[in-house]
């Protein structure tokens, strides 16, 4: 096992990694920007190093500063958390060149996870189900139009280097195709530095379901069931749960087998997530391979009784998979992402937190780096806490989440707690009728399915 790990991140995920390290007996180094000097992750780590000003590109994305901090503190490994440098293959390579272990998959795994069109092409070749569409990227508008003619409208144009819903354009009819293609190309070039696009049939009503996988250096791969992530707004997930109320044992087995096939197809190592869209008819399509620990990992931890961060660190240190057989989810876990945002318009609401009083009691977990008197800076993601509950079944988990949301006191800034209370009281949510159009319908009830 590593003796000392540097955490190249901030906020709740840095705290989560430090907690895992403590339990493993590993020393920790926090890095922080000027504005984060009074942060919880700095307080909890054994050592800390300032790596630059508040602007992310000068601190949490500053590769030379982070590698220097690791060398100065004799850190053997770096945990990137999520966001920032976590899916940057050059950073993973730079760590290796400096003799520092990157806690995550190989640079090749990360590079392929980032190239959505290549990943789709490989998965298709290996027999993982993908939506009908282009075989890899499209060479030109004319070539794309030919594919669209073959598969029929609506189609969706996606940026090869996009992902997570960024850089997508739905095209409903041939008359709109050429304009849409040029706009998508231009937007992709601006956002991702590449104008490469691929094309898929657009599936109208979908659920976003993802499967957690674990893989060791010997090529053993396990899955830890699914997470239902359909409650999202503009591709920002708001509520996640495991298991999905839509997934029965048969579908879980199918999703798990496909996820393992996907991981083996790319010789994946460490923890990862295979993202699918699933139709009401239980058709399953591979979408993306996420090569980081994800925000919503706690719901899997709660139902599987596994510490994914500790497993991830052990795997990076070369350990074999610790779990002997496939596990079944126990009960139900739900996570509400609490953001420092106006709950009606979802615009950031940074500032000083006056009171921060978190809920407790049976089955309640709060992953956060916030505290009374802390100021939420405007420079970073607005996620300030994750409220996770576990219950014997979905009904108990929902009751527990409502109770915990009522107990949670955060004053001085606006948060999304009132929004979550609204969802937890919605009939469709309570009865498990959720797809990616849920939030839109909640705010605009006249709209039928998508
Ligand atoms: C799709 C899709 C329908 N058909 N692809 C969004 C996240 C990214 N990983 C993939 N996404 C989607 N891909 C095909 N072929 C629907 C989504 C999707 C979505 C699309 C438009 C508006 C909201 C959405 C929410 C979740 C998923």
CATH superfamily of the largest domain: ATP-grasp fold, B domain
Mean pLDDT: 96
The CATH class of the largest domain: Alpha Beta
Helix tally equals: 15
Small molecules (ligands, ions, cofactors) in the structure: ligand MV4
The end-to-end distance, rounded to whole angstroms, is 49 Å
Q: Oligomerization state of this entry?
A: single chain
Q: Any idea of the CATH topology of the largest domain? A: D-amino Acid Aminotransferase, Chain A, domain 1
Order of strands, widest sheet? 13-12-9-10-11-14-19-17
**Inertia-based shape:** globular
Percent helix range: 25-40%
What is the percentage of strand-forming residues? 25-35%
What layout of secondary structure does this protein have?
Layout: E1 4-7, H1 11-24, E2 27-33, H2 40-44, E3 47-52, H3 63-72, E4 77-79, H4 89-97, E5 101-102, H5 107-114, H6 116-125, H7 141-151, E6 155-163, E7 166-171, H8 177-192, E8 197-201, E9 207-215, E10 221-233, E11 236-242, H9 249-265, E12 270-278, E13 284-290, H10 297-304, H11 308-316, E14 332-339, E15 351-352, E16 356-357, E17 364-368, E18 375-376, E19 383-391, H12 394-407, E20 409-410, H13 417-424, H14 427-430, H15 438-443
Parallel strand pairs: 1-2, 1-4, 2-3, 4-5
Antiparallel strand pairs: 6-7, 6-8, 9-10, 9-12, 10-11, 11-14, 12-13, 14-19, 15-18, 16-20, 17-19
Helix pairs in contact: 4-5, 12-13
